[in-house]
Amino acid sequence: MKKTNPIGVFDSGVGGLSVLKELLKVFPEENFKYIGDTLRMPYGVRSPEDVKNSTFECLSFLAKEGAKGAVIACNTATCYGLENAQEKLDIPVVGVVEPACSYASLVTKNNKVALIATEGTVKSKVYDETIKKFNKDIVLKGVGAPQLVLDVENGNLENDIVERTINGYLEQLGDFDYDTLILGCTHFPLARKAFERIFEKQNRDVKLVDPANRTAIALKEILEKDDLLNQEKNPKIDFFSTNDIEKFKATVKNVIDTENEETFKEVTL
């Protein structure tokens, strides 16, 4: 494995771009290959076995493209596909759930943490189990938000449409007095400003937890240990999508602000 080999990033769609943004800050001299499985999104409403298989298929694609390590930038795929991928692939693979739980356990003051995620992630109970490893006294309450995934995929990141959607899901938490909210789908940090506006209007101080930065640091520690960190002067990002590459490209251009060389290609897995 060469230091110049790229870092692979996988998500069910464009949500993983929120993780890629952090990866670009932590790894400014690395090459990247990103695949969004837009043909089969959203993952949150699919069966665990289906998600596991699709996750492995996408990660295998990145491995064949020469990735020296990979990030599952999707919470649902992390829940159902991380362990299988780590067992079967010869490259290090990291997910987003554990970094999110670790940080949430550090910042909550009243041990009441809310989770907004896909229905699949909420039903998996992976967040419930993982956060207890860091603080057994934390009470977690989750809500599935499938429409919010679709809003973000359609480019509604900061407008009234996405704000109404978010409000509807947060109301399902009722009188649960949470002081920390885990954005448990990598699509959701792309709508972070809408979340912040809602809590500002409610005059509430709620800590928003985005696992992206902690995930990037976790991967850096692995690559550093294996002496695989790169110092590329002209890093490149290759983007792949399994459907509608032009729509995918438009969202990328709206979210990722970089001087790195970029390529875009639609692929069939």
From TrEMBL:
Domain of life: Bacteria
Location of the active site: 74, 185
Record key words, sorted: Cell shape, Cell wall biogenesis/degradation, Isomerase, Peptidoglycan synthesis
Biological processes annotated in GO: cell wall organization; peptidoglycan biosynthetic process; regulation of cell shape
Catalyzed reaction equations: L-glutamate = D-glutamate
Binding site for substrate: 11-12, 43-44, 75-76, 186-187
PANTHER family: GLUTAMATE RACEMASE
Entry function: Provides the (R)-glutamate required for cell wall biosynthesis.
Record's protein name: Glutamate racemase
Organism: Peptoniphilus gorbachii
